[in-house]
Amino acid sequence: MCALIPTLQCATRILVIQHPQEQKHALNTGRLLVAGLAHADLLVAEQLPPDSPVLQQISDPAWFTELLFPGERAQLPVPAQSGDERPRRLVLIDGTWRKARKILMLNPVLQNLPRVCLPGGLVSRYRLRKTRVPDALSTIEAGVHALQMIEPDRDYSALLHPFEALIEGQIEAMGVECYERNHSPLVCGYVNSRPAKD
C-alpha cells in the first residue's frame, strides 16, 4: 500500500486534528491523507494545549483558515481564486462523529473558525465502517472532495488509491463471505454503507 501513496502538491495547507483513539486504528484514513500531501500536518490531540504552536497558526490572521465540519453556519468551500489573497489552511477533525464533536467542543479556537461543508449526496467508498449519519465520508474522502472544490484545476484522486487498496486488503483478509455477511449494505439496512464516523 505504501507504494500507492502519492506526494501531491497543493496550495491549501491541510491540518488534520486526530483523536488519540484513532491513532492506532487499522483503518486510519486521516494518516493516509496527510501522508499523500506535501503540505499537510497531523496533530494527535483531544484538547489543544494553550501553548500549542497549532493554536497560534490557526489564529494567525495572515492565513485564511477554515474548518471542514457540517453545521448551520457551514457553507460550501469556494475556489481559491475567489477573493481572499491570504494563504489558505483547511482543518479537518479525524475521529468518530462523537469524538470529533468533543474535539470541537473542547477547543474554542476551532469553534470560531469559518466553517465549510461538503454538498449532500456524496457516497462513501469506505465499505468497512458503518454510520447512521447521512452522507458521512471517511477523513481522506472528505479531504479529497474539499480540495477538489477549493482547487478545481488540480486532480487529487490519486490520494484515494491507497485508501481503496486498504479496503480491498481488509476485505480479502476477512474473506468475501465474512464481508458480505457482516458488511453488506442489505444486511446493514442501508442502500449504501457509509463509514468513518458514528
UniProtKB/TrEMBL annotation:
<dbReference type="InterPro" id="IPR005636">
    <property type="entry name" value="DTW"/>
</dbReference>
<dbReference type="Pfam" id="PF03942">
    <property type="entry name" value="DTW"/>
</dbReference>
<keyword id="KW-0949">S-adenosyl-L-methionine</keyword>
<keyword id="KW-0819">tRNA processing</keyword>
<keyword id="KW-0808">Transferase</keyword>
<comment type="similarity">
    <text>Belongs to the TDD superfamily. DTWD2 family.</text>
</comment>
<feature type="domain" description="DTW">
    <location>
        <begin position="1"/>
        <end position="175"/>
    </location>
</feature>
<protein>
    <recommendedName>
        <fullName>tRNA-uridine aminocarboxypropyltransferase</fullName>
        <ecNumber>2.5.1.25</ecNumber>
    </recommendedName>
</protein>
<dbReference type="InterPro" id="IPR039262">
    <property type="entry name" value="DTWD2/TAPT"/>
</dbReference>
